Amino acid sequence: MYAKVIVDVPAKQTNRAFDYWIPEPMREWVAVGSRVGVPFGPRKLQGFVVDIRTQVDYDPAKVKPIAEVMDVYPPLTPDLVELARWISQTYLCHEITALQAMIPGALKAKYERHVKVAEHAADGRSAGTNVGGSGGQHLLLLPEQLDILRYVREKGTVEIGALLQKFAANGGLVKQLMLEGLLLEVQMIKDRMAAKKVLTVIPPDQPAQLLQRAEELPARSAKQKEVLRYLAEHPFPIKLSELLHELGTSAGTVKSLAEKGWLAIEEVEVFRDPYAQRSFRRTEPLALMPEQRHVFGRISEAVQDERHQVFLLHGVTGSGKTEVYLQSIQTCLDLGREAIVLVPEISLTPQMVERFKGRFGDQVAVLHSRLSHGERYDEWRKIMLKQVRVVIGARSAIFAPFTRIGLIIIDEEHESSYKQEESPKYHARDVAVARAVQHRAVVVLGSATPSLESMYGTMRQPSLTGTPSGAAGGNRLNDAAAAVSAAGLHPSVQADAPSNEAPLQPQGAAIELLTMHNRVEGRPLPRVHIIDMREELREGNRSMFSRSLYKAIEERLHKKEQTVLLLNRRGYSTFVMCRTCGYVAQCPHCDISLTFHQSSRAIRCHYCGYAEREVTVCPSCSSEHIRHFGTGTQRVEEELGKLFPGIRVIRMDVDTTTEKGSHEKWLTMFRNRQADVLLGTQMVAKGLDFPHVTLVGALAADTVLNLPDFRAAERTFQLLTQVAGRAGRHELPGEVFVQTYAPEHYSIVSASRHDYKSFINKEMTLRKLHEYPPFHRLILITLSHEQIPLLMRTAESLAARLKELAKSLAPLPVEILGPVASPIARIKDRYRFQCMIKYRGEASISGLVRQAAAAFEDMEKQHKLTISIDVDPQVLM
Ligand code: ADP
Ligand code: ZN
Ligand code: ZN
């Protein structure tokens, strides 16, 4: 038996599977998806088994054996291994990078150097102090060296650093033993994190015995008697620490009972459960509203038919999408299948988790980045060991190692955070569709403001190249690729672009559109007022609050209702500027302004971490009129305090939410009405549901509009719709004020009218006109280097090479734009240039890019030049 293994080195030369022979005793343990340790040149590396064969194509004698198997259960399922290959082909990354992205950080390999005692040294032990050296001579060992050898022999292997620490005074002797070959170096592959084990007291099978034993003990052993009686009454395994705490006794007491053999103390694996301290009130399914019932019907039908299908659920804020998700998941679980729910990191709030834990209790695992490595690993193990059947998590939860997925839900599917910005630069929505094809599962994309890509998918006919049902043979990777394209998320050239008159959902569209126009129980959407801030200024109001928003806040304070204020993070910058000469503090390594941090009174670069003390005198003109723009939210908080003395404000932004659990703390306080205003960045716009919020203010609604990004209008529309959706979700009606300098912009006007349709029509028209996604696809290639001339030359020849290769695709339209300097022209002392490929259709564009980039790999190596490729980029900086 042979295994094909992808090793842990992300490089072109190793981006293929290598053959290894599986030694007989390991056969039971090695499977597709296993992690193994394999010899690779002089080293030992971790790798993933991606295939198992009975023969190799060349001399089997040359094939080396697998050195070790790392896990009892393979951490990856075969379908994940297959998916990794798809990801590496689609997003042009190394296969190992995709595989690594699928396992928790705790399982990433850590290479350790250990020593063990050489065999001949072990033999020499009985011969007294003389042992054979490597050269066959007899060496006289010092007593200290013998101590070292004895220590290592007892332990089996010892990590070199630990050994040196233990024998700190004799580091030289350790080295000598190694040089003489008495200690041999072995490389060990270790997990970064191990399962947590806790000493646990295990009572005997017949607890009645315990009482009897308690009687037998002499009176002075009162503590021991107490332990025995307690266990007789509670005959279950209990953590040693808990037992000690319960009885106020010492470990010695319990240990002496264990030594008598009356009970056992064992190390038992436990799960670090971040939610262990919390209890969740169980919720029952609600009676659905008519629109919910229809939508639920369509989804659950598909789930029951075990048919692959993608739905786009467009439901206005407060229409009850979550209840639909919950009931659909129930259908899925009833069929014995599993469900994955993706939510953006930022809205993975305790409130969201509560809704799922409340309905499905212990069946739910939660994966988000605020968990510690250990907690994350343990949640993941619950999935692996099939102790849970629902996972709710951010982007990477799409790789949950389930084996029978019936339903994948992506909430707020328009969020750009579903795209990973570092390699593998995958989009979780596309990966979800591919994975659903493998499992014949249903995908539900939910949003109040669906992305143009998904909307476009509902307007298109499924392409003929792939049946989204994945019927033929099930797990075909090709089907997955075809389905992602067939789902219409990305156009292929055969498909016709929709005309704007087309009904939103033609028969047999690739994605089925489901709509919920109404809020639950017919609650009205909030009334939205657009405030022209230019007008305010003209009338002499220089405050950041318009007069009407000021009045509205005052009114809420009066009525004891709550207000949410959104300040777009990117809007109010936090830079340091000289008011005399206009000097702005910039990072010396990156072309970006430094950010002022009030708490540490330092200015800092967000890209490279460079920091300096705040400046009080302008370095350029020596003026003292330096203005520190604190984080926008801080300034707003200050101004609120001035305008409304005694107002209680909770501020949520990067500065106030770094601490673990702080997010939760603030939201709980707000929910308990311990504050009048919740003020924050994007994080207050998403998913929050508070009954007493009747006012929402967006302070600088249009700042995103000015970003050099073709999605600027879409982002603005989404943000405003989301934040407006926080108001009046319950009995009390809501009101929204949008302050802007661009009151007539269509994204702001449509958002204020809750008019998704007119927005999408306008935006689709513009995208089509300018040949942007979803009508065309983009690949962004960014090159970076310390020196401009070499960088420019390389960028130009790469672009030329791409143009050359693109000719072979004619008549398919492929356009190579650039090279130009990137919008952020320098990061960490490296200059950046970019090329953009704009194209329609799948063709073999990825092959082409791979081919072009491959020609520059030597350049990358020799000159430390980096070329990074982003397929379907979300950020164009
Ligand atoms: P969305 O995610 O679409 O913005 P939610 O799922 O948060 O909306 O629902 C809004 C509110 O309506 C929540 O408080 C939810 O509990 C409630 N709700 C949802 N469905 C129903 C229903 N069928 N009957 C009564 N209340 C409901
Ligand atoms: Zn100055
Ligand atoms: Zn910097």
Describe the 3D structure.
The chain contains 27 helices and 35 strands. Helix 21 (662-671) links the parallel strand 28 (649-652) and strand 29 (677-680). The chain has seven domains: 2-109, PriA, 3(prime) DNA-binding domain (GIY-YIG endonuclease), CATH 3.40.1440.60; 112-190, Alpha-Beta Complex (Outer Surface Protein A, domain 3), CATH 3.90.930; 204-262, no CATH class; 290-516, Rossmann fold (3-Layer(aba) Sandwich); 523-570 and 632-768, P-loop containing nucleotide triphosphate hydrolases (Rossmann fold, 3-Layer(aba) Sandwich), CATH 3.40.50.300; 572-631, no CATH class; 777-871, Alpha-Beta Plaits (2-Layer Sandwich), CATH 3.30.70. The longest helix is centred in the C-terminal third of the chain and has 20 residues, at 788-807. With 877 residues, it is an alpha/beta fold. The two termini are 49 Å apart. The strands form nine sheets. The protein has a seven-stranded parallel beta sheet, with helices on both faces. The chain has a six-stranded parallel beta sheet with strand order 21-31-30-22-29-28, sandwiched between helices. It has a five-stranded antiparallel beta sheet with strand order 2-1-4-3-5. Helix 1 (78-90) crosses helix 2 (95-101). Bound molecules: adenosine-5'-diphosphate (ADP) and zinc ion (2 copies). One zinc ion (ZN) binds next to loops. It catalyses: Couples ATP hydrolysis with the unwinding of duplex DNA by translocating in the 3'-5' direction; ATP + H2O = ADP + phosphate + H(+).
Give the tags:
single chain; about 900 residues; alpha/beta; GIY-YIG endonuclease; Outer Surface Protein A, domain 3; 7 domains; six-stranded parallel β-sheet; globular; binds adenosine-5'-diphosphate; binds zinc ion; metal-binding
